[in-house]
Amino acid sequence: MKQVHVALVLGARPQIIKSALLIRLSNEDEHVRLSIIHTGQHYDYEMTKVFFEEFSLPDPTVNLDVGSGSHAQQTAKIMSRLEPVLLEQKPDLVLVPGDTNSTLAGAVTAAKLHIPVAHIEAGARSYDNRMPEEINRRLTDHCSTLLFTATENCSRNLLKEGISKASVHLVGDPMYDVLLQQLSKAERTAIISRLDVKAKSYALLTLHRQENVDNLENLERILEAIVRLKKLAVIFPVHPRTRKQLHSFNLYTKLKEQKHVRLIEPVSYLENISLIKNANFIVTDSGGMQKEAFWLKTPCITLRENTEWIETVQLGANYLVGSDTERIVKAAEGIIENEEVLCKKLEKSPNPFGDGCASQKILKIIKGSQLFLG
Ligand code: UD1
Known about the structure:
The protein is built from 18 helices and 13 strands. It has helices spanning 13-27, 49-54, 71-89, 101-112, 132-142, 152-160, 174-187, 191-194, 210-213, 216-228, 240-248, 252-256, 269-278, 287-295, 310-314, 325-337, 339-348, 358-368; strands at 4-10, 32-38, 62-63, 93-97, 117-122, 146-149, 168-170, 202-206, 233-237, 261-264, 281-284, 300-302, 318-320. Strands 3-2-1-4-5-6-7 form a seven-stranded parallel beta sheet, with helices on both faces. The protein has a six-stranded parallel beta sheet with strand order 10-9-8-11-12-13, sandwiched between helices. The termini are close together. Bound molecules: uridine-diphosphate-N-acetylglucosamine.
């Protein structure tokens, strides 16, 4: 079998997590040569390097160092810096995980150089074009040759958009693979004792979506609900975008004064998994954490009106409440009151996200693909 040269383009925190097992498997496989191209979209230690260390991943082959900017600036910068790298490296395939600006830029640049693109997490749809990630997902899918989906619903979404069935591969969710592999390690982290909280005595809050944190009205309404949630401690690892916005709207000090709210630096993957598992519930606008909470049987309140992971809502594990103060408080109180019944229900829930072998399946399909045979 010919060796396949795969260039993996990533740059944002969740993309490293999604790719972690795949990188390890590729490095152990003599039929695969993997180059990791880091766009530099995320650059703080706790947004990128900590994950490479935690998963013992090799350093990226190249770092494009693009840093922050508007959507157009960031996407364009990645494209113009990536093009010469791809021209020089001549990979057989460019692999892009998720839905960030790095995903889109990687896919478009490769497709225009006639390099086949494989998309991990294809077909996820929120049907909300105000989310930059929805645009990134759609465009990436439509310039991909291999589309790896996490659920049956994602595969259906692609077929509805006219994508050929032969390109769509339902493999399951590589984030689930990583979770299964890392769970026992996560359970041994000291984060809970370091924060001096007890298991099942707090809510975990994460917040970083542009539509929530760049909009003063929405951010204030969410924080008002958090201030009212005094029955539990609230642990809040603050994303750099959110920290910047809290300061610029003069909200940081007010939040810090709340006795039940703990503002902390962004946490590592293992710490985050431990925090989700031990929380009574999570409050988040992250896509990935909705799924992680579902797998860890922790109820989730999602600060959005829609989600690309609709399966978690249909199975009763996830409540969509937008940024409405009353709806957030009501959902939280409902979970607290019905905790036992809800937990029993979540324990019995089926898992539509595959069998934990998505990364192996992706690698097998890439190696066996017609694109490289002959
Ligand atoms: C990006 C992704 C989002 C993903 C998220 C995970 C897009 C459109 N969005 O959002 O889908 O869920 O990553 O975190 O690609 N910043 C730092 N240090 C960093 C990175 C960012 O300080 O290492 C600050 C900067 O002020 C920057 C802001 O965060 O302007 C936003 O960063 P950006 O990469 O544009 O988007 P995220 O909000 O992180």
